[in-house]
Amino acid sequence: MDPKQEVQAQSVEAEPKAKVKEILSVQDEEDEQMKKRHLNVVFIGHVDAGKSTTGGQILFLSGQVDDRTIQKYEKEAKDKSRESWYMAYIMDTNEEERVKGKTVEVGRAHFETDTTRFTILDAPGHKSYVPNMISGASQADIGVLVISARKGEFETGYERGGQTREHVQLAKTLGVTKLLVVVNKMDDPTVNWSKERYDEIESKMIPFLKQSGYNVKKDVSFLPISGLMGLNIKTRLDKSLCSWWDGPCLFESLDSIEVPMGDPKSPFRMPIIDKFKDMGTVVMGKVESGTIRDGDSLLIMPNKDHVKVVAIYIDENRVTLAGPGENLRVRLSGVEEEDILSGFVLSSAANPISTVTEFVAQLQILELLDNAIFTAGYKAVLHVHSVVEECEIVELLQQIDPKTRKPIKKKVLFVKNGAIVLCRVQVNNVICVEKFSDFPQLGRFTLRTEGKTVAVGKITAL
Ligand code: GTP
Ligand code: MG
């Protein structure tokens, strides 16, 4: 079975599509796999930073791509006048992606280190595909932020309007708690493993990461790599190449990241990102809280369809139960595939997810189009877990001082870029969400208009 074809043939109707393509999967002994923890890691960063190249290199170095395939990709890349793109072809599997040298759909692949099974989600960097990046990041536990050290490239990514900034802010809001910042292309002739360039990038990134809400000491680490050459990825750097780096390689860093996992005992919630027909109805998603078992009776919210769990799969392996953080396919009885949309949530029947058409949220305004003002009546597209829905701000309740984080007494009618404001948000259709304080992953969201992220927020009351 080719899972990628299957997924693509049966995309969900909601716009934009939560596109996912499956690259490769390891068929290790099930027992071994289940003992290790599992983490979803999203690769983010500006267009052409080297996300797909680094992802492809990881698969190559972990023995999942043979030399013959690499040679084939080298030839194909050369024929397309994209010689240096061959490593990216491991992740970029569509013709469109290979011709343009740009990821469009989130690529998905698996690899393992000593302690962890990783699912890589290779997000697109191009600004047109930010909705796909959001869908990738919303499934992730940790992020690898890829930055190009090549002269001029770091600068363009970091500028206002560059995707380095937008991706970091989105990742934080979407629940990516830990970031590994890889300074890539260190081999490039304009860089040549320069400590000065590395330090420059690190020192410019730190204040910005802080502003975006990351605790740089606890939640962020930096390391230099060359994705294309495969350096400092699986093994540490050779001193003869780079004398000043004493730190770990990428695999070691990924291995040592600790992430608080959702509670396996809390009520079950799995937002649905995709669905298809295969001997019944199969839904895909990531468990955000609770545990699912074979034979469970659950609800699909908001429609309250009663369903029974027929089978649970992690990658190709059938399992009898699964907990927080796992990416699953779940075969269900009691519901037709047509009756499910992406954004619906597979929920505990005794304690189902809340359904609303209105909620109160604390919003941080990032960048309004043409410096517009933000006031009641403002319309945008709401992205919360796998939901994409038109929304309207119906009332501004209170402004919050960004410095002191205390409420400002004065009545608020409009706010501008950078403001933090409490407001009431309305959607046309019923959606499944939770308060941020109860289920962070199901209560944080982004607002976008005309293809740009204008605000990030947390739901404070339902
Ligand atoms: P999008 O998917 O479009 O966002 O780009 P990406 O971040 O996935 O970048 P991709 O891996 O497609 O690489 C873009 C270009 O950068 C290709 O020409 C790569 O060969 C080149 N590149 C990536 N990593 C390195 C590196 O470590 N060193 C050098 N010199 N070039 C690199
Ligand atoms: Mg890419």
Overview in brief:
The chain contains twelve helices and 25 strands.
Notable characteristics:
single chain; 7-stranded mixed sheet; 462 residues; alpha+beta; binds guanosine-5'-triphosphate; globular; binds magnesium ion; 6-stranded antiparallel beta barrel; 22% helix
Describe the SSE topology:
Layout: H1 3-9, E1 20-22, H2 30-35, E2 37-44, H3 51-61, H4 67-79, H5 95-100, E3 106-112, E4 116-122, H6 130-137, E5 142-148, H7 153-158, H8 163-173, E6 178-184, H9 195-211, H10 216-219, E7 220-224, H11 250-256, E8 269-277, E9 281-286, E10 292-293, E11 297-301, E12 305-314, E13 317-319, E14 321-322, E15 327-333, E16 345-348, E17 354-365, E18 374-375, E19 379-384, E20 387-400, E21 407-408, E22 414-415, E23 420-433, H12 440-443, E24 444-449, E25 452-461
Parallel strand pairs: 1-3, 2-4, 2-5, 5-6, 6-7
Antiparallel strand pairs: 3-4, 8-9, 8-16, 9-15, 10-14, 11-12, 11-16, 12-13, 12-15, 17-23, 17-25, 18-22, 19-20, 19-24, 20-21, 20-23, 24-25
The structure holds guanosine-5'-triphosphate (GTP) and magnesium ion.
Residues 47-53, 84-85, 88, 101-103, 124-126, 146, 184-185, 187-188, 226-228 line the site of guanosine-5'-triphosphate (GTP).
Structure report:
This protein is an alpha+beta fold. Helices cover 22% and strands 35% of the residues. The chain has twelve helices and 25 strands. A hairpin with a 3-residue loop joins β11 and β12. It is globular. It binds guanosine-5'-triphosphate and magnesium ion. Guanosine-5'-triphosphate (GTP) binds next to α3.
